[in-house]
Amino acid sequence: MFWESVVIALDGLRANKMRSILTMLGIIIGVGAVIAMVSIGMGVRDKVQKSIAGLGSNLLIVMPGATAPSGVRVAAGSTTSLTYKDAQAIAREISGVNLVAPSVQRQYQAVFGGKNWITSMQGTTPDFLAVRNFEMADGSFISQRDLDTRDRVAVLGRTVADNLFGEMSPLGQTIRINKSTFRVIGVLATKGQSAGGQDQDDLIIVPLTTAQERMLGITHIHSISVQAENPEVIDQVQQDIATLLRVRHRLQPSVPDDFSVRNLAAVMATAEETTGTITLLLGNTAAISLLVGGIGIMNIMLVSVTERTREIGVRKALGATYANILLQFLIEAIVIGVTGGLIGIAMGLGASYTISSLFGWATVVSVGTILLAFGFSVLIGLFFGLYPARKAALLDPIDALRYE
């Protein structure tokens, strides 16, 4: 009886093609929309996670100037509150710290031959490479000797290298940065864009002391990147850094911090929570069309019961039981849900890949999402087909045979 009911249901769909397509349309759109919307949400979450992780693992960033609860930086004039000695003290005195990389930065125009490019010059130390998860594509990174001698050497990001040198190797070449000459000793491997759309390859790295004394004429630094040994100690390291800097800056208990310590692990957790909420909202919004599709199934099944009243009467007269009639109409509703769900899966996958290729948005298609959407479509068919099927099964055979 089961397979016979499936065959009858498929025959019914083929006999009324247009009505069947319109009935399944809500399910198709619902399943496709759920898969596409959730894949976009998961793609955004994945991109944000990779971007934050790409800044460095177990990373803390110390910035000058206090931060108000609203996120607005306060304490005018406090932007010069951090020094290279603060960074050295953190590396020397805080347990649980793996590497420390202080840095300064400013926008400058880099020139080679007849080409020029405005980029971010960063002055930093040799540990910057490991702390910020950069890799070398060619040549070498700045060394402690370069730092001690204030040497004019530079490491280029891929974007700068391509715009100044094209296909030519930049190693050993001399470039001008704000009228000062620098010898190129290395090129960084491509890192791509950050979550905010910033090109992480658009930079030039020089020794910290060179940037401070020969380029900027300052003694303070703009930020300190601190890599903790492992995720378990990062919160303690954050507290210890704050305590150390307050002591070094001679801040009284009533005076607020003249610095801020950002924990990127906490930032990532917040970002995951936010993007997860967005993904859930997108999925729930798309799932509404599944409910609309279920109402469509109920409507058509009620029409089908009315149209086939005499057929039901004949079946009951020949010995069909309540369970036989109920099963027949339930299977027809489920077949509509399954067929619509399968077409919707194909539509959702196609929409995800199309969005990714046309707009450049990152999409992540999850097998779990596909199974959830498909299972929901089957349950929708079952739930909304139950009332029409029960109505058909409860028909009195004599009344059904008399129906015109």
Helix coverage percent: 55-70%
Largest sheet: 6 strands, mixed, barrel
The SSE string, one letter per element, is: HHEHEEHEHEHEEEHEHEHHHHH
Q: What is the topology, as strand order, of the major beta sheet?
A: 2-3-8-5-7-6
Q: Strand portion, in percent? A: 15-25%
Number of strands: 10
Any overview of this molecule?
This protein has 404 residues and is an alpha+beta fold. The chain has 2 domains: 2-51 and 269-402, no CATH class; 82-248, no CATH class. Helix content is 56%, strand content 17%. The chain has 13 helices and 10 strands. The protein has helices at residues 2-15, 17-54, 84-93, 128-131, 144-149, 158-165, 208-216, 234-248, 264-307, 309-317, 322-359, 367-393, 397-402; strands spanning 59-64, 97-112, 115-124, 136-139, 153-156, 174-177, 180-188, 203-207, 223-228, 259-263. It has a 6-stranded mixed beta barrel. The radius of gyration is 33 Å and the shape is elongated. Residues 72-78 have low confidence and may be disordered.
SSE diagram, text form:
Blueprint: H1 2-15, H2 17-54, E1 59-64, H3 84-93, E2 97-112, E3 115-124, H4 128-131, E4 136-139, H5 144-149, E5 153-156, H6 158-165, E6 174-177, E7 180-188, E8 203-207, H7 208-216, E9 223-228, H8 234-248, E10 259-263, H9 264-307, H10 309-317, H11 322-359, H12 367-393, H13 397-402
Parallel strand pairs: 3-8, 5-7
Antiparallel strand pairs: 1-9, 1-10, 2-3, 2-6, 2-9, 4-7, 5-8, 6-7
